[in-house]
Structure formats: C-alpha cells, structure tokens
Amino acid sequence: APRVIALMNQKGGVGKTTTTVNLAAALARQGQRTLVIDLDPQAHATLHLGVDPASLETSAYDVILSPDAEITGAIRKIRENLWVLPAETDLAAIENELQTAQDRNQRLTNAIKVVSNRFDAVLLDCPPALGLLTLNALASADEVLIPMQAHFLALQGVSKLLETVTLVRQSLNNDLSVLGVVLCMHEKQTTLSQEVVADLEEFFASASGTEVAWSNARVLSPPIRRNIKLAECPSFGQTIFEYAPTAAGAQDYTDLALSLLGKAKAE
Amino acid sequence: APRVIALMNQKGGVGKTTTTVNLAAALARQGQRTLVIDLDPQAHATLHLGVDPASLETSAYDVILSPDAEITGAIRKIRENLWVLPAETDLAAIENELQTAQDRNQRLTNAIKVVSNRFDAVLLDCPPALGLLTLNALASADEVLIPMQAHFLALQGVSKLLETVTLVRQSLNNDLSVLGVVLCMHEKQTTLSQEVVADLEEFFASASGTEVAWSNARVLSPPIRRNIKLAECPSFGQTIFEYAPTAAGAQDYTDLALSLLGKAKAE
Ligand SMILES: Nc1ncnc2c1ncn2[C@@H]1O[C@H](COP(=O)(O)OP(=O)(O)OP(=O)(O)O)[C@@H](O)[C@H]1O
Ligand SMILES: Nc1ncnc2c1ncn2[C@@H]1O[C@H](COP(=O)(O)OP(=O)(O)OP(=O)(O)O)[C@@H](O)[C@H]1O
Ligand SMILES: [Mg+2]
Ligand SMILES: [Mg+2]
C-alpha cells in the first residue's frame, strides 16, 4: 500500500505545488514509484510537470466525478518512477456537481484504491481552500504535510487547518495524521523566521503524547530555502532536478525526501 | 469624493494586505485622509493595524449585512489621517447570508456613500477569492490595484482576474478601471522577474487605446522589494513606518503613494 500524503494549506501561495512537484520528483529519484494527483483547478502542478491542462482527455475531474471512472487511463507517466493524475479547470465546478452525492467526500479514496498497488507514494496537491477537493484529499490520505512560510500571518491559519484535519479524522478517516510542517521560501537568518519556527516547535512538542491528529507532528527538516530557481522551473515545465540539479532547491527537496524515507541527509 | 481603490487578486499570499496597509499609511502620511476597509474574514489588515478582530462590536460584516448599518460607528481612527473599518471572522458567512438579497453586490457601495465626504482615499483589502466580498469591492471601487509577484505561476491568474473586473464593469460599475499591477516581494535582479515584468508591460501596452478595463493600466513604480521588515511589522500591529521607517519597504511604499498622487519620488 502506498503512502498517501496530502500537501495542504488553505492559505494561498505558501509552497504547496512547489513542494508536491519537487518532493515527488525527489522521491522518484530515490526509487519510489510516485504518483502526483493535482487537485487544484488552477492546475499548477500539472503545468509545473510540463503537461498542458487544456489538452487532456481525462483528468482528476473525470475521476472524481464518475464513480467507475477509469483512473488508470487518466494517469500518465511523465518521468522515471513518476506519474501524474493531472487537473484541469473543470475541477472548479466539482463542488457544485457533487453537492448532493452521498459519497462526495470519498470519491478520491475509492479511485486511489484502484491503482494503489502500483505506487509507493501518492502526493496530493491541494487547492488553497478547505472545500470538497481538500476534503477528498484528507479523506484518502494517511498523512498531512503543511507547507508554510515562517511568517506571522502564516501562523494565523494553522488552527483552522488543524480543525479541519480533526473533523475529517473523526468523521471520514480515522488513520489521518499530521506528519508536520514544511518550511517554504525559508530565510533562516531572520529573527522573524526563528521566532515562528520556535513557536511551531513548541506547539508540536506540547501535543506530543496526546490524542490529537498532530501528536507526532514536527517541523520537518530541512527547511526549503528561498531559491529563485524553484520559481523559474515551472515556466519550463520542469522539476528543479531537470532545471538546476545543483541548486539549493534541489538539495533541500532531496534532503526532505530522504528525511521522509527515514534516511540520513545526502552528503 | 474619495478615490476608492480595490486591492485585489484571487491568488493567495501575493501582498494584498501588506500593500493595503502600508500604502494607506503612506497616503495618510502625505496628508490624505485614508480609510482602510478590511474585507477578508482572515482579518489580516485588521491585525496588521493593531486592532483585535475578536474584540469588535461592529465590523465590515455588520455594515454589509445591514442596509441601514451604522458604518460611522464601525469605523475607527487608528493613526493620524488613517481610519479602519475592521473585519472579523463572521465575514466568512456573508456569502451564505446574502445569497438571496437582490442588492447583495452593492451593499458596500451604499455604505461607502454614507461616509465618502470624510475621506480622500478608501482602500479595500480583498480576500483571495472572486466571491461576494470581492464583487462588492469591485462594485464600489473607482480603480483596481493588482498586487502580485513577478513569477510564472502568478501570471496564470491574471486573465481570470481581468475577466471578473470586466464583468463587474459591464453589469455593476461602469466607472471601474484597472490602475495597474503592484509588484510585491520583488527581486529585480532575477531573469525571471525581468521576463515576467516585460510580459506584463507588453500586455498593458497592447491594451492602450482600446475599450478594455485595463486600457490605461501599467506596471506601477516602484516595485516593492522583498524586505523582511514588511513581514515582521504585522506581528507588532504596526505599519512599516512605525516599525522600521528607514527600511526599504518604507521607502518603496512611500514612493508608490507619491506615484499614485502623481508626484515625483521622494529624495
Ligand atoms: N523555495 C522557494 N523559493 C522561491 N520561490 C518559491 C519557493 N517555493 C515556491 N516559490 C514560488 O512562490 C510562488 C508560490 O508557490 P506555490 O505555487 O508552490 O504555492 P501554492 O501554495 O501551491 O499556491 P496556491 O495556493 O496558489 O496553490 C510560486 O511562484 C513559486 O514558484
Ligand atoms: N515585500 C515583502 N517582503 C517580505 N515579505 C512580504 C512582502 N510583502 C508581503 N510579505 C509577506 O508575505 C506574506 C503574504 O503577504 P500578504 O499577507 O500581504 O498577502 P495577501 O495577498 O494579502 O495574502 P492573502 O491572500 O492570504 O490575503 C505575509 O507573511 C507578508 O508579511
Ligand atoms: Mg498550488
Ligand atoms: Mg490578505
């Protein structure tokens, strides 16, 4: 069974897509058969990976909409060890279209089950919202990664996020747990980031040993440093490993992948 | 009549709040009687200005909800020449509560009319969405400012944004026009930002002389440089001018304000 990880944060522009794409690529390079599922109608992960959302015959939209959908046909191999279930703008309509469906929060779970034996890791790129698409992601995930910036206003959204994770854990998915926070666009040397990180670490430490969904969560290491290469490669439809393999961004996502696999950092 | 400016972008984390607060403060320091209206249920502009959203008796929520609402009572003076109509989390419910109201897109326009003679500038901080709150902002605005980062994925959202502005212009507010783009968190020396800026400038240049809402729009000057001080001051409930008056962020927002007032840059 694969490890299903939801990259979620209702706040926009925090690094969800950049992390989904480059962490998935890093895992693939470590030999993990990895599937990226793009759940954002903006289709940024799809674009980032060099797939044209306008050219798709089937996408995550069709898979979620149709209970017997052929997820197998919608998934495409895009790199060695890396597959994508792409998004398209129709996904924006899904909330309306599934309003009355009894199992509307479980559509993705059922679809993933069909292909789970083909993958070691499934990464779900969530939109910046706590709506139907994110709920489907949380319902099908084992773990939650929270990409965020170590900024003051970023902290404001965390409690609402954990509230939603808790709700899903209670009602839809008892196995859901928060793996931790991925610090994105990180500037280690600033007082602000040090204070925010200290805040987060203290928050997780005090949850340790309790019953909450984040009782085993931590601030993940390493933080992902601000690196313009990470902002450039989407425009070429490339991952950081193709665009700038020796850049700080490539190093950080490799080390993050190793950390998730329980391995030591690269040399 | 005041100049009513909507700071909008459906993309999250692009600098709307930072720009609304610090541009308003800069205008106030230039002698402009300035009102900030926080239209985001996250209430970040409210927090940024040192107002506790949880302590409010009346807020933007009450004003929009009640046609005869006492906007006068909800507005508070917070600095010399600077007032705020604060937000609170109840604002999240407003879309549902006004679903069937005929004039639901015009609530804010009517409220602003009540106080317009007291102000020279009214700045509207929009949430990262194109829903009811943003529509109210566009219906009551004269001009639209689009804060954004000069990144590839940031360009993807611009056409949808302009589509919405066009719709409002046609159906609700014929005087609505796009003033331009405010480049936030700008890194001038990178190839990426130079290419994105060139793209934007070409796009606006080709619209010049046409009938579209952005026919007089431009990339505003100066860009707002990435400056950690701008991310720190919200945690103290301060504007950049109180927190770090000699920082790059203070200089850039002052120059932006001067540019909006048609004046030359500061020395
Ligand atoms: N470490 C980094 N260094 C530099 N730029 C980065 C980094 N991480 C992300 N970016 C850039 O920041 C912007 C926002 O990142 P991204 O799109 O990954 O966030 P997101 O949370 O997926 O946004 P959304 O909520 O819109 O889906 C993008 O332009 C991206 O290229
Ligand atoms: N020029 C800058 N330099 C450094 N940090 C900045 C700058 N502008 C904004 N920030 C920081 O970036 C983050 C996002 O900015 P901001 O909250 O203004 O965006 P927003 O568009 O209002 O977000 P939202 O969509 O959530 O309302 C905040 O943590 C803010 O402090
Ligand atoms: Mg994204
Ligand atoms: Mg904001």
Most strands sheet of chain A = 8 strands, mixed
Category by helix and strand content of chain A? alpha/beta
Shape of chain A: globular
Strand order of the largest sheet of chain A: 3-4-2-5-1-6-7-8
| Mean model confidence by pLDDT of chain A | 95
Assembly state here? homodimer
Please report which band the strand proportion of chain A falls in: under 5%, 5-15%, 15-25%, 25-35%, 35-45% or over 45%: 5-15%
Radius of gyration of chain A: 17 Å
The tally of helices of chain A reads: 13
Ligands and ions found = adenosine-5'-triphosphate, magnesium ion
**Low-confidence stretches of chain A at least 5 residues in length (pLDDT < 50)?**
none
- The percentage helix of chain A is 40-55%
Order of helices and strands of chain A: EHEHHHEEHHEHEHHEHEHHH
Largest interface: A-B, 25 and 25 residues
**Number of E strands of chain A:** 8
Question: Could you walk me through the main structural features you see in this protein, from its secondary elements to its overall organization?
Answer:
Two copies of one chain form a homodimer. Chain A is of the alpha/beta class and 267 residues long. Chain A contains 13 helices and eight strands. The first copy, chain A, has helices spanning 16-29, 44-48, 60-65, 71-74, 94-97, 107-115, 132-140, 152-155, 158-171, 191-207, 228-232, 240-243, 248-260; strands spanning 3-7, 34-38, 76-79, 82-85, 121-125, 143-148, 177-183, 218-219. In chain A, helix 10 (191-207) links the parallel strand 7 (177-183) and strand 8 (218-219). In chain A, helix 1 (16-29) crosses helix 13 (248-260) and helix 6 crosses helix 7. The mean pLDDT of chain A is 95. Chains A and B meet through helix 2 and helix 11 of A and helix 2, helix 8 and helix 11 of B. Bound molecules: adenosine-5'-triphosphate (ATP) (2 copies) and magnesium ion (MG) (2 copies). One magnesium ion binds at residues 16-17, 40, 44, 125 of chain B.
